[in-house]
Design brief:
103 residues; alpha+beta; Beta-Lactamase; five-stranded antiparallel β-sheet; 19% helix; globular
Length: 103
Amino acid sequence: MGLLSFLTRSTSANLLRLPHGSFTMDREGRIIASTLPQSFPQDRAREIGRTFLSFFRSAQAANLPLLEVVVDYAALRLKARALRAGAIVFLTPQSHGSKARSC
Protein backbone atom coordinates (compact mmCIF):
# COMPACT_ATOMS: atom_id res chain seq x y z
CA MET A 1 0.00 0.00 0.00
CA GLY A 2 2.91 2.36 0.70
CA LEU A 3 4.05 2.01 -2.90
CA LEU A 4 0.80 3.54 -4.19
CA SER A 5 0.59 6.30 -1.59
CA PHE A 6 2.02 8.83 -4.03
CA LEU A 7 -1.23 8.61 -6.02
CA THR A 8 -3.28 9.88 -3.11
CA ARG A 9 -1.08 12.85 -2.26
CA SER A 10 -2.61 16.21 -2.98
CA THR A 11 -0.67 18.10 -5.63
CA SER A 12 -3.00 21.11 -5.65
CA ALA A 13 -0.71 22.94 -3.23
CA ASN A 14 1.97 23.04 -5.93
CA LEU A 15 -0.36 24.23 -8.69
CA LEU A 16 -0.78 27.91 -9.43
CA ARG A 17 -4.32 29.16 -9.94
CA LEU A 18 -4.85 31.40 -12.92
CA PRO A 19 -6.31 34.81 -12.10
CA HIS A 20 -9.98 35.47 -12.68
CA GLY A 21 -11.35 38.95 -12.31
CA SER A 22 -11.13 42.48 -13.57
CA PHE A 23 -9.66 45.85 -12.74
CA THR A 24 -10.25 49.43 -13.79
CA MET A 25 -7.46 51.92 -14.46
CA ASP A 26 -7.52 55.68 -14.82
CA ARG A 27 -5.70 57.36 -17.69
CA GLU A 28 -2.54 57.78 -15.56
CA GLY A 29 -2.27 54.01 -15.05
CA ARG A 30 -3.48 53.84 -11.43
CA ILE A 31 -5.75 50.95 -10.46
CA ILE A 32 -9.08 52.36 -9.28
CA ALA A 33 -10.99 49.15 -8.54
CA SER A 34 -10.15 45.45 -8.73
CA THR A 35 -11.85 42.09 -8.32
CA LEU A 36 -8.59 40.16 -8.81
CA PRO A 37 -7.49 37.88 -5.97
CA GLN A 38 -5.11 39.44 -3.45
CA SER A 39 -2.52 36.84 -4.42
CA PHE A 40 -2.25 38.39 -7.91
CA PRO A 41 0.68 40.86 -7.94
CA GLN A 42 -0.42 44.50 -8.24
CA ASP A 43 2.71 45.28 -10.27
CA ARG A 44 1.68 42.68 -12.86
CA ALA A 45 -1.85 44.13 -13.07
CA ARG A 46 -0.43 47.64 -13.53
CA GLU A 47 1.91 46.40 -16.26
CA ILE A 48 -0.94 44.68 -18.11
CA GLY A 49 -3.20 47.71 -17.76
CA ARG A 50 -0.57 50.20 -18.89
CA THR A 51 0.12 48.09 -21.97
CA PHE A 52 -3.55 48.22 -22.92
CA LEU A 53 -3.69 51.96 -22.20
CA SER A 54 -0.75 52.36 -24.57
CA PHE A 55 -2.66 50.44 -27.28
CA PHE A 56 -5.66 52.72 -26.88
CA ARG A 57 -3.54 55.91 -26.90
CA SER A 58 -1.69 54.81 -30.03
CA ALA A 59 -4.95 54.04 -31.79
CA GLN A 60 -6.40 57.40 -30.78
CA ALA A 61 -3.29 59.22 -32.04
CA ALA A 62 -3.69 57.43 -35.39
CA ASN A 63 -7.44 58.27 -35.49
CA LEU A 64 -8.39 54.59 -35.37
CA PRO A 65 -11.58 53.69 -33.48
CA LEU A 66 -10.13 51.00 -31.20
CA LEU A 67 -12.51 50.31 -28.31
CA GLU A 68 -11.63 46.73 -27.33
CA VAL A 69 -8.55 44.53 -27.43
CA VAL A 70 -8.62 40.76 -26.82
CA VAL A 71 -5.46 38.72 -26.27
CA ASP A 72 -5.89 34.94 -26.16
CA TYR A 73 -3.16 32.82 -24.63
CA ALA A 74 -3.39 29.05 -24.33
CA ALA A 75 -4.52 29.25 -20.72
CA LEU A 76 -5.61 32.87 -20.22
CA ARG A 77 -7.74 35.47 -22.01
CA LEU A 78 -7.08 39.17 -21.50
CA LYS A 79 -9.78 41.56 -22.65
CA ALA A 80 -9.62 45.34 -22.32
CA ARG A 81 -12.21 47.98 -23.11
CA ALA A 82 -11.44 51.65 -23.50
CA LEU A 83 -13.26 53.95 -21.13
CA ARG A 84 -13.51 57.72 -21.30
CA ALA A 85 -11.12 58.08 -18.37
CA GLY A 86 -9.02 54.92 -18.71
CA ALA A 87 -9.70 51.23 -19.31
CA ILE A 88 -11.24 48.14 -17.77
CA VAL A 89 -9.34 44.87 -18.09
CA PHE A 90 -10.80 41.37 -17.69
CA LEU A 91 -8.64 38.30 -16.96
CA THR A 92 -10.33 34.96 -17.59
CA PRO A 93 -8.82 31.46 -17.58
CA GLN A 94 -9.45 29.59 -20.82
CA SER A 95 -11.54 26.46 -20.47
CA HIS A 96 -10.06 23.30 -21.91
CA GLY A 97 -12.91 22.71 -24.32
CA SER A 98 -13.25 26.23 -25.70
CA LYS A 99 -11.85 27.24 -29.06
CA ALA A 100 -10.43 30.65 -29.83
CA ARG A 101 -12.79 32.88 -31.76
CA SER A 102 -11.61 34.20 -35.07
CA CYS A 103 -12.33 37.80 -35.94
